[in-house]
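Tokens for chain A. Residues wanted.
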């Protein structure tokens, strides 16, 4: 019997602005906290709340992890295979 795999995770990509923010994170605790938040978003891209405003696609969403003190703004591509992170706050 072939091994059972969990649901397919979305791939994470970063906007240029988010990539620059990522370069400025030096604390290992902050990197760990951000990593946990990105895993949550990649497993379930709908976990974040839609940000009110423009109704054009793609819908900008935010995921906030109050325990780890992380906030990520992102959108999901049309095929739901890639999550593009637009902003990181750790």
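Reply:
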């Amino acid at each position: 019997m072939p091994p059972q795999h969990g649901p397919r995770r979305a791939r994470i990509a970063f906007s240029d602005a988010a990539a620059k923010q990522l370069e400025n994170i030096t604390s290992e605790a902050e990197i760990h906290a951000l990593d946990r938040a990105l895993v949550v978003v990649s497993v379930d891209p709908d976990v974040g709340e839609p940000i009110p405003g423009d109704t054009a696609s793609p819908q900008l969403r935010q995921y906030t992890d109050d325990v780890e003190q992380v906030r990520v703004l992102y959108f999901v591509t049309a095929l739901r295979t890639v999550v593009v992170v637009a902003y990181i706050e750790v």
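The two ends are 43 Å apart (CA to CA). Residues 28 and 34 are 10 Å apart (CA to CA).
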